[in-house]
Design brief:
Distance between the termini: 44 Å
Radius of gyration: 15 Å
Strand order of the largest sheet: 1-2-3-4-5-7-6
CATH class: Alpha Beta
Shape: globular
Order of helices and strands: EHHEEEHEEHHE
Strand content: 25-35%
Oligomer: single chain
CATH architecture: 3-Layer(aba) Sandwich
Number of strands: 7
Amino acid sequence: MTNAIGIPSVTLRPALDGDLAEVEELLVESGLPIAGVAEALCSFVVAESDGRLVGVVGLEVCDEHALLRSTAVAADWRDRGLGRHLVERIIAEAESRNISALYLLTTTAERYFPSFGFVKTTRDAVPAQVRLTGEFVSACPASATVMCLELRAPA
Protein backbone atom coordinates (compact mmCIF):
# COMPACT_ATOMS: atom_id res chain seq x y z
CA MET A 1 0.00 0.00 0.00
CA THR A 2 1.33 3.44 -0.95
CA ASN A 3 0.48 6.40 1.25
CA ALA A 4 0.27 10.10 0.38
CA ILE A 5 4.05 10.52 0.11
CA GLY A 6 4.32 7.83 -2.54
CA ILE A 7 6.56 5.42 -0.65
CA PRO A 8 5.03 2.03 0.14
CA SER A 9 4.43 1.28 3.83
CA VAL A 10 5.79 4.60 5.17
CA THR A 11 3.84 7.07 7.26
CA LEU A 12 5.05 10.54 8.23
CA ARG A 13 3.75 11.75 11.58
CA PRO A 14 4.64 14.11 14.41
CA ALA A 15 7.16 12.65 16.85
CA LEU A 16 5.82 11.47 20.20
CA ASP A 17 7.60 11.42 23.57
CA GLY A 18 7.85 7.64 23.29
CA ASP A 19 9.87 8.02 20.07
CA LEU A 20 12.83 9.72 21.74
CA ALA A 21 15.04 6.63 22.16
CA GLU A 22 14.51 5.51 18.55
CA VAL A 23 15.06 9.04 17.24
CA GLU A 24 18.31 9.38 19.17
CA GLU A 25 19.45 5.92 18.01
CA LEU A 26 18.79 6.85 14.37
CA LEU A 27 20.69 10.13 14.77
CA VAL A 28 23.67 8.45 16.43
CA GLU A 29 23.76 5.81 13.67
CA SER A 30 23.82 8.68 11.15
CA GLY A 31 26.63 10.51 12.96
CA LEU A 32 24.41 13.42 14.00
CA PRO A 33 24.30 15.16 17.38
CA ILE A 34 21.50 14.48 19.85
CA ALA A 35 22.03 17.58 22.00
CA GLY A 36 18.72 19.42 22.36
CA VAL A 37 16.65 16.71 20.66
CA ALA A 38 14.60 15.87 23.75
CA GLU A 39 13.69 19.54 24.27
CA ALA A 40 12.63 20.05 20.62
CA LEU A 41 11.06 16.62 19.97
CA CYS A 42 7.52 18.06 19.85
CA SER A 43 8.53 19.80 16.59
CA PHE A 44 10.05 16.73 14.94
CA VAL A 45 8.53 14.56 12.22
CA VAL A 46 9.26 10.86 11.97
CA ALA A 47 8.85 8.34 9.18
CA GLU A 48 7.52 5.00 10.36
CA SER A 49 7.31 1.67 8.57
CA ASP A 50 5.91 -1.47 10.18
CA GLY A 51 6.29 0.03 13.67
CA ARG A 52 9.94 1.04 13.14
CA LEU A 53 11.24 4.58 12.80
CA VAL A 54 13.10 4.80 9.49
CA GLY A 55 13.53 8.56 9.22
CA VAL A 56 13.45 11.78 11.19
CA VAL A 57 13.72 15.51 10.71
CA GLY A 58 13.53 18.26 13.30
CA LEU A 59 12.46 21.84 13.61
CA GLU A 60 13.83 23.85 16.52
CA VAL A 61 11.73 27.03 16.68
CA CYS A 62 13.42 30.23 17.85
CA ASP A 63 10.81 33.00 17.79
CA GLU A 64 10.19 33.86 14.11
CA HIS A 65 13.14 31.75 12.89
CA ALA A 66 13.87 28.05 13.15
CA LEU A 67 16.69 25.56 12.88
CA LEU A 68 16.15 22.62 10.55
CA ARG A 69 18.04 19.82 12.23
CA SER A 70 18.43 16.11 12.71
CA THR A 71 17.62 14.95 9.19
CA ALA A 72 18.37 11.24 9.08
CA VAL A 73 17.17 8.16 7.22
CA ALA A 74 17.94 4.57 8.23
CA ALA A 75 20.66 3.06 6.04
CA ASP A 76 18.32 0.48 4.51
CA TRP A 77 15.84 3.22 3.54
CA ARG A 78 18.24 5.63 1.81
CA ASP A 79 18.01 6.47 -1.90
CA ARG A 80 14.23 6.08 -1.98
CA GLY A 81 13.31 9.77 -1.67
CA LEU A 82 12.35 9.53 1.99
CA GLY A 83 14.78 12.25 3.09
CA ARG A 84 13.31 14.61 0.50
CA HIS A 85 9.78 13.94 1.76
CA LEU A 86 10.87 14.59 5.34
CA VAL A 87 12.57 17.89 4.48
CA GLU A 88 9.60 19.03 2.38
CA ARG A 89 7.25 18.17 5.26
CA ILE A 90 9.30 20.15 7.81
CA ILE A 91 9.56 23.15 5.46
CA ALA A 92 5.76 23.07 5.08
CA GLU A 93 5.45 22.85 8.87
CA ALA A 94 7.70 25.91 9.27
CA GLU A 95 5.63 27.81 6.72
CA SER A 96 2.41 26.90 8.54
CA ARG A 97 3.94 28.30 11.75
CA ASN A 98 4.75 31.54 9.91
CA ILE A 99 8.51 31.07 10.38
CA SER A 100 10.38 33.73 8.40
CA ALA A 101 13.56 31.73 7.75
CA LEU A 102 15.01 28.29 8.30
CA TYR A 103 18.69 27.77 9.10
CA LEU A 104 20.77 24.62 9.18
CA LEU A 105 24.29 23.41 9.82
CA THR A 106 25.80 20.58 7.81
CA THR A 107 29.14 18.90 7.39
CA THR A 108 28.00 16.48 4.69
CA ALA A 109 24.96 17.80 2.79
CA GLU A 110 25.90 21.25 1.50
CA ARG A 111 25.16 20.02 -2.05
CA TYR A 112 21.80 18.48 -1.10
CA PHE A 113 19.97 21.36 0.57
CA PRO A 114 20.21 23.89 -2.30
CA SER A 115 17.66 21.69 -4.11
CA PHE A 116 15.13 22.99 -1.55
CA GLY A 117 16.23 26.62 -1.99
CA PHE A 118 18.76 26.81 0.86
CA VAL A 119 21.76 29.07 0.24
CA LYS A 120 25.06 29.28 2.08
CA THR A 121 25.39 32.06 4.62
CA THR A 122 27.69 32.94 7.51
CA ARG A 123 27.25 32.30 11.22
CA ASP A 124 27.21 36.06 11.76
CA ALA A 125 24.17 36.39 9.48
CA VAL A 126 22.15 33.94 11.60
CA PRO A 127 19.78 35.55 14.15
CA ALA A 128 21.07 35.51 17.72
CA GLN A 129 18.30 33.26 19.06
CA VAL A 130 19.23 30.55 16.52
CA ARG A 131 22.96 30.94 17.24
CA LEU A 132 22.17 30.21 20.91
CA THR A 133 20.79 26.73 20.21
CA GLY A 134 22.82 23.76 21.38
CA GLU A 135 23.49 22.76 17.80
CA PHE A 136 25.19 26.10 17.05
CA VAL A 137 26.91 26.49 20.42
CA SER A 138 28.48 23.08 20.82
CA ALA A 139 26.99 20.19 18.84
CA CYS A 140 28.25 21.09 15.36
CA PRO A 141 31.84 22.02 14.54
CA ALA A 142 32.77 25.57 13.60
CA SER A 143 33.69 24.21 10.16
CA ALA A 144 30.07 23.21 9.42
CA THR A 145 28.41 24.91 6.47
CA VAL A 146 25.62 27.29 7.48
CA MET A 147 22.62 27.55 5.17
CA CYS A 148 19.40 29.57 5.09
CA LEU A 149 16.01 29.30 3.42
CA GLU A 150 13.95 32.49 3.45
CA LEU A 151 10.27 31.58 3.83
CA ARG A 152 8.80 35.08 3.92
CA ALA A 153 10.05 38.62 3.76
CA PRO A 154 11.32 39.97 7.10
CA ALA A 155 8.81 42.20 8.91
